[in-house]
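Section 3.1: Structural characterization of target chains.
Under the original work plan, the team committed to producing a structural model for every single-chain target entering the pipeline before any wet-lab resources were allocated. The record below documents one such target. The sequence was received from the expression subgroup and is listed exactly as submitted; it comprises 391 residues.
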Amino acid sequence: MQKDFFIYQAQTTKFAAGFEVEKAEGSYIFGTDGRKYLDFVAGVSANTLGHSHPKVVQAIKEQADRYLHVMVYGEYAQEKPVALCRLLAEATPPPLEVTYLVNSGAEAIDGSLKLAKRYTGREEIVSFKNSYHGNTHGALSVSGNETHKREFRPLLPMVNFIEFNNENDLDKITDKTAGVIMETIQGAAGFLVPDDGYVKKLKKRCEDMGALLILDEIQPGFGRTGKLFSFEHFEIVPDILVMGKGMGGGVPVGAFMSSKKIMEALSHSPKLGHITTFGGNPLIAAASHATLKEVLESGLMDQVEEKENLFRELLVHPKIRNINGKGLMLAVNLGSPEYTLDVAGQCMEKGLVVFWQLYRNEYLRISPPLTISKYEIRQGCQIILDVLNKN
């Protein structure tokens, strides 16, 4: 299988692991080598409830027995997509009330940019340096790392970048700005959290200028920070909310959400302002609805802060410079990309899956399932410390 993987499947790097997966369950991935590996990455924050959560699997099976794809998005009323959108509306503060279901976080970013431009009649988008929003042309255009962008230019015009947490830069948001897009917690840059009061000031500037605030919650959403969405920590509500990754409990999905008034801008002049064949697919919606319902009802979000504190208590070592992040999205600074990659490899050899941050490879990513137990946290952290002690 590994040989065919490298021959027939397109690669994203020259150093893919090619690890052969047999099955995955709970907090563990099982390899064809007969070993089990504790997963501290959760499919890069995608497996909110761990691998193959029984309620998610059951929802998929029940929907598969009824019907799969029947019509392009937005034409037919189907039980699970409708139930998912209703539950999202009930679980989020006003004016968030209408959800557009798509296939990925990156597509949701593209849809949100189109919505901001269409609703305001403006063309400029303001984003943030070192931000990451995905790899479609639109999402890449508003991502803030030139190394990842330069070979794919030209990208979208009229995108300007400001510095995260720099209040002076807020003046660059003007009455020409259609929307400001920000990761509520910057992911690829090393899980950077907004300073106290910054998000409120950003929201106020957007309101004063008539620009829409788009918050990218693709990674911190669905309970990862102890709230359903991390903007709830900062006492504001975005005009457009973008989600993905952990929304589906392990299946590909994305969505953007807004008020009915704003979202209606995509339905006319022209009609079909955004269209997708498979967005809102009933099988995916069933998995997403089951995931959201479990996150809301299980009490898992109430455990996130305690689990974060346990990670921070255990991961103390002279080679750990600092730990960024919030909740169960933590970035452990090991000083250099080379050392971090080496540590990740040795952890894998010892049965622990860890990864690194896209832009800041010196940071070791820790984003386990919300369902991870304290015992498993202790077990995994001990492996990290053992590797650090030997190197």
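The mean pLDDT is 97.
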